[in-house]
Fold:
Amino acid sequence: MKLPARIAACMLPLFLAGCVHWPHKEKLPPPPPVISPSTVPPPTQLPPPEVTIPTTPSVNATNLPEQTPKPPAKHHKQPANPVPDTQQASSGAPAVSAIGQLSSRDASDSRLQTQASIDSTERSLNGIKRNLSDQDQKTVAHIREFLKQAKDALTSGDIDGATTLVAKAKVLLNELLR
Structure:
């Protein structure tokens, strides 16, 4: 058989079977009737409703149950000098905790270190002499904003916040210097 006849023979069963996916036109419901202005009933002439607020019965102060205030919670303070361990007392060497020795930095020392870090970051930022692209200028603006916020935090007494802001400024400065 020739090619056109073969194609016609293959397509014939499809045409005879029809397609079930054809969109069937559904009958739409009839549109609602148009209401003319003459068929609208006139509004009724009713007086406005009376609105009253319900009253609650008054409560006498003598009928209330007595409430005793809670006593404040008692916090147990640790003794200033804890009882020494038997190992420490017998060996003479201080016992080291499992996490190591904890040290607290002096507040004035932290303040000075943070201020020195702010100053060194500003000097490094001002030492950039090359032409900066738009993106680099935005980064410089972010660094200056972090340094300004760090100075404000340092003057308000937030040493940890100032240290964090200086660290952010240094990270951006290192990216800018690469």
